[in-house]
Design a protein that fits this description.
The complex is a heterodimer of chains A (299) and B (293). Chain A is mostly helical and 299 residues long. Chain A contains 14 helices and no strands. The two termini of chain A are 30 Å apart. Helices cover 71% and strands 0% of the residues of chain B. The chains are: A mainly alpha (299), B mainly alpha (293).
Chain lengths: 299, 293
């Protein structure tokens, strides 16, 4: 290609035209087959009687109607709603609060930011392992506080079917809230200080400054945080596996763990495919409008 | 994004500054607590943990849990320690990161400097592929890896991570190259430089920052992956995260919490190291993956 000067007017025009597309095509082919082709395949399987192996005999909506009659799926959806809403709300609230605090010309800002953010570098399996034993009543927080003399102290949520889902919220918030803080901090740093100065001269209090001027301007950061967190909540699998394994019983089952167990251990592939399809729909409902608006803005 | 990285002009009095610093310090403790728990408990004998001493420093310091986690602990059925699986993860991560970064750079270059009809749609397709729930591809991918003979192998995992990593690496390079002056590329084209010459001589030399971001992102994502590792590997090809989970969940015998903590730190060390060395880029990567600056 270094001799492009000669080929410029020569017969290589076709190659020159096509080369960029040729370079792009392997990636495009991979994505078309392994993302979209596979999505269609799984979608198709969700209408078949596949059990341990894929089958191509259609059974209509049977898998979906079965799916919504399974109690574990019901639990999984309820858990996702509880976990997802608490996770998003707490991460955003905590992230915003920390970002505002850290934006007050703090001396050791760099260090503190590092401390708040490092959990994001860890695998959910590591986070899950750490919190699993920390929350374990036999050796963790409860045992420690009791050994300090508060004999009746009880914190056994992780062993309690009604409360275990909240331990997942605790660990997930620990892992992600620092990242949300960084998103809001970036948003805060982009705010025009002139407007704030003018409002200050008019005698606005700090609380009013934040409520009336700063926070409304953080809308894009809120949007991004919501999209990222919702997406992570729907996909969450590793943390649940590491922290509770879906238990006690099926009390912390989420759609991602449900899909895995129905497909690969219970050999109900058709139902597994149906549950995966529903997960995809949920994510598409959040991501497609977001990606669409991002791409439109750019061009 | 943080082009005018100036702190706020909001003024705070001495009293509220004291409150602010106290709160910030308390949250430092909150974020550091699990790390503290992992580190101190990986250095003490099991009996101290069982006696309710999880929060205290070791009475007897020992590195035996580390030695056990690394080379003798029971993972599944065999007492291999985590060492072979750490190696699996390295062998998996390096090619997957390298290839997806190179392809991402080329794709980003094409999508910004050699634009053609429909390129935005193609980018949109690549981008949405980043965000799908991978449950949607597990069944056909397991079948396909089986058919081509890559099931349960490290190369199979490399392939899977490559396929689902391209979207993000393309996203990074596309957004970065979009800022790059197209006039320079035009001028080089008029001078007769070809596709790859322009890429090598003009684009690559200024791609350092985004390459770092992309490599860090892919490295942390692939190293930390669990779902693909759990789905597509068998005992010999397990990555570190899957092996760690097997170590912790194994129900036989006494639970060796100190060994579990040592193993967890081992699984965390590579990404933690990357984060400490290149934290600035790590944050930028996270942001670009979400906010798309």
């Amino acid at each position: 290609m270094a001799q492009g000067a000669q080929s410029r007017r020569g017969g290589n025009d076709w190659l020159r035209e096509a080369l960029p597309k040729l370079v792009l095509s392997p990636s495009l082919a991979m994505v078309l087959i392994f993302v979209y082709g596979f999505i269609i395949f799984t979608f198709y399987l969700s209408f078949t009687d596949s059990r341990i192996l894929p089958s191509f005999d259609l059974v209509g909506w049977e898998n979906y109607s079965k799916l919504f009659r399974i109690r574990a799926w019901d639990t999984a959806i309820t858990n996702l709603l509880i976990f997802g809403s608490l996770y998003i709300v707490i991460c955003c609230a905590l992230g915003l609060a920390l970002a505002i605090l850290l934006d007050q010309k703090i001396r050791a800002e760099g260090f503190i930011r590092t401390v708040y953010l490092y959990p994001m570098a860890l695998s959910f399996i590591v986070t899950g392992t750490a919190w699993k034993w920390f929350l374990d009543p036999g050796i963790g927080l409860q045992a420690v506080i009791r050994s300090w003399g508060w004999e009746s102290f009880t914190f056994d949520w992780i062993k309690d079917g009604d409360m275990a889902i909240y331990t997942i919220v605790i660990a997930a918030v620990w892992q992600t809230s620092g990242f949300v803080m960084a998103m809001f901090l970036a948003g805060l740093r982009g705010i025009d200080n002139e407007v704030l100065k003018a409002a200050q001269i008019d005698g606005a209090s700090n609380i009013a400054l934040y409520r009336r001027i700063v926070i409304p301007q953080l809308r894009p950061a809120f949007m991004s945080a919501f999209v990222v967190l919702a997406h992570m909540a729907i996909k969450s699998y590793d943390l649940v596996i590491a922290l509770t394994g879906g238990g006690p019983g099926t009390s912390t089952e989420v759609p991602a763990t449900f899909m895995y167990s129905y497909t690969f251990t219970r050999n109900q592939m058709g139902i597994g495919a149906a549950s995966a399809t529903i997960m995809l729909m949920a994510i598409a409902a959040i991501m497609v409008p977001y990606i669409y608006s991002e791409l439109r803005e750019k061009s | 994004m943080s082009s005018n990285a100036t702190a706020t002009v909001v003024r705070t009095g001495a009293g509220s500054r004291f409150v602010i610093y106290t709160l910030l310090a308390l949250f430092c403790l909150y974020y550091l607590l699990p790390l503290y728990v992992m580190v101190v408990n990986s250095l003490k004998p099991l009996s101290e943990i069982q006696a309710g001493g999880m929060m205290s420093l070791p009475d007897v310091w020992t590195i035996a849990p580390w030695a056990s986690a690394w080379s003798t602990a029971q993972i599944g059925v065999e007492a291999t320690g985590l060492r072979p699986f750490f190696w699996n993860s390295i062998v998996m991560v390096v090619p997957a990161v390298a290839i997806s970064t190179v392809l991402g750079a080329l794709n980003g270059y094409v999508l910004t400097k050699w634009r053609f009809r429909g390129d935005t749609i193609i980018f949109g397709l690549l981008l949405f592929g980043c965000f799908i729930p991978f449950q949607m591809v597990l069944i056909p991918m397991a079948r396909m890896l089986g058919i081509v003979g890559l099931a349960g192998t490290v190369p199979g995992l490399v392939f899977v991570h490559l396929v689902y990593g391209i979207g993000f690496s393309t996203l990074y390079f596309r957004n970065y190259y979009q800022q790059f002056p197209t006039e320079l590329v035009r001028a080089a084209m008029i001078d007769g430089a070809g596709f790859f010459t322009i890429f090598r001589r003009i684009m690559l030399p200024s791609s350092g920052p985004i390459a770092v971001v992309c490599v860090i992102w892919q490295f942390t994502n692939i190293w930390n992956d669990f779902l693909f590792g759990a789905s597509f590997s068998d005992f010999d090809s397990q990555p570190m995260t899957v092996a760690l989970n097997n170590l912790v969940q194994s129900s036989t015998g006494v639970k060796e919490y100190n060994v579990h903590f040592a193993g967890a730190i081992m699984a965390a060390l590579p990404t933690l190291l990357v984060y400490i060395v290149a934290g600035r880029y790590f944050v930028r990567g996270l942001m670009a993956g979400s906010v798309k600056g």
